[in-house]
Amino acid sequence: MTLAGNLAGGLADKAAELRRLHTDPELLVLVNVWDVASAKVVAGLPGCRAVATASYSIAASYGYPDGEVMPASLMIEAVGRIAAAVALPVSADLEAGYGDVGETVRKAIGVGVVGANIEDQMRPLDEAVAGVRAAVRAGEAEGVPFVLNARTDAYLLGDDRDPADLLAEAIERGRAFLDAGADCVFVPGRLDAATVRQLVEGIGERKVSVLGLPGTPEPRELAELGVARVSFGPWSQRVAMTSLADVGADLLAGAGLPS
C-alpha cells in the first residue's frame, strides 16, 4: 500500500472509532481544546477517548473574534497541528464551513481531522441540509467515514420564541440533518433535563449532542436521558484563563507560586 493509502487507512480507523464512541452506551465527554499544549494535556487525562476543538477558543488564541472572522486557512492549520499532536481521534469545530462546507471538510481531513461540527446559523432548512450533504460527500470522496455533528442554533438564536416552537424546529432540523447523513445533532443552549429528554425522543437516542453549561444536567443524567455526546465549547479555555488570571494577580501582588 502507498504512503497515501496508509495515511487514509489510519484516518479511516480513527473516524470509525469516533463514530463508535457516539453510539457506545457510555456518554462521550469531550473537553474542548484550542492549541497543541491544551490538546496534549486533555488527551493525556484518564478517560479521554477523543479530542474536540472549540472555534471560539482557537480564534481567541489568535486574536480574532468568533464567527468565521479568522481566515479558514489559519483555522485548518490550527486544527491540523492539534490532530498531529495527539493519537486520539480529533473532531474540529468548523463553524458554518467558511463559505464552502465540502472544501473545508476536505481540507480538514487532509490535516488529520476525522469529525466536525458544522452549524446551521438558522439558515433556510434546505441550505442547511445542503451543507450537511456536502460535508458527508467530502468524507466519502476522501475515503474517510467523517463523523458529522450537525449543529442547529435553534436555541442559541431563538431566546424570544415560544419554547414549544424552539423544540419543534430543533427536532425538525435535527431529523433532516440525520436524513442527510449526519451522525449526530448538536443542540447548544441552556437546556434543562425535560428539554433534553424531548429532544432525544424527537431526534433519536444516542443522536443528540449538547453543550455543557453551568446548570446543564450532569453527565450521568445526560447518559440516562440517551444523549450521545457532551462538550464544553469555550468554557474550558475560560476556566484555564481564569486560573491564569488568579495566579498572575497573586504573583504581581508579591506572592510566590502555589505549591
Structure description:
There is one protein chain. Helix 4 (72-85) packs parallel to helix 5 (101-110) and helix 5 (101-110) packs parallel to helix 6 (125-141). Strands 1-8-7-6-5-4-3-2 form an 8-stranded parallel β-sheet. It has 259 residues and is of the alpha/beta class. The protein is built from 10 helices and 8 strands. The protein has helices at residues 3-23, 36-43, 55-61, 72-85, 101-110, 125-141, 163-179, 193-203, 219-225, 235-252, and strands at 28-30, 51-52, 90-93, 115-119, 147-151, 184-186, 208-211, 229-231. Helices cover 50% and strands 11% of the residues.
Indicate the radius of gyration in whole angstroms. Answer: 18 Å
The overall strand count is 8
Distance between the termini: 52 Å
Q: How would you describe the shape?
A: globular
Biggest β-sheet strands, sense, barrel:
8 strands, parallel
The total of helices stands at 10
Strand order of the largest sheet: 1-8-7-6-5-4-3-2
| Structural category | alpha/beta
Rounded mean pLDDT score: 95
Query: Which percent band covers the strand fraction?
Result: 5-15%
Give the uncertain stretches in residue-range form: none
What are the secondary-structure elements, in order, as H or E? Answer: HEHEHHEHEHEHEHEHEH
Relative helix content? 40-55%
